Amino acid sequence: MEPPEMTEEMKNWMDKAFQMAQDALDNGEVPVGCLMVHDNQIVGRGRNEVNETKNATRHAEMVATDQVIDWCKKNGKGSKEVFEDTILYVTVEPCIMCAGALRLLRILPTLQRCIIYSFDPLRTLTLFSFSLCPLPSHTFKKS
Ligand SMILES: [Zn+2]
Q1: What angle do CA 53, 82, 23 make, to 5 degrees?
Q2: What residue stretches are annotated with the CMP/dCMP-type deaminase domain (predicted)?
Q3: The one catalytic residue among 29, 49, 61, 93
């Protein structure tokens, strides 16, 4: 499966993801940044916040995911539907934790909705493996 060709629009989104990565670096974090784009607008953006928060799960993708959920609440949208129609732009290939989360959120069925600037050959197998995993059949109940 080949990643899609980068259009000018995609390059612009990726530039913004790199700005997030620079912000991470400027703040003493591993320089990873990402954007989540839905309906041609940014609904989530994230950069690593692991050192600031002393929370090893605060990777760029997880930070952006929380923002998307907040955006959905503010805009009266269902997060499932929004995530299913969201494109992720991320500066490096997601780690195994984030890849698993992206799969559960249905962002990662194909590379058409997961635009990665830099592939790490050691991680690629993990990402593709997750993209092939069946999704759990349970659904979360609304509280
Ligand atoms: Zn991660």
Answers
A1: 35
A2: 8-135
A3: 61
Q: What is the 141 CA–ligand 1 centroid distance (Å)?
A: 26
Percent over 90 (pLDDT), the chain = 57
- Out of 39-53, 76-90, 114-128, least confident range: 114-128
Residue 37 — φ and ψ, nearest 5°? -115, 125
93 as an active site residue: the answer is no
Question: Does the pLDDT at position 15 exceed 80?
Answer: yes
Q: Is 71 helix (H, G, I), strand (E, B) or coil?
A: helix
Ion ligand 1 contact residues with beta carbon within 5 A:
59, 95, 98
Each residue's pLDDT tens digit, 42-78: 999 999 999 999 999 999 999 999 999 999 999 999 9
Long-range contacts at 31-34 (CB < 8 A, ≥ 24 apart): 31/91, 32/59, 32/60, 32/90, 32/91, 32/92, 33/60, 33/90, 33/91, 34/60, 34/61, 34/64, 34/88, 34/89, 34/90, 34/91
SS3 of 116, please?
Answer: strand
Cα of 37 vs its chain's centroid, Å: 9
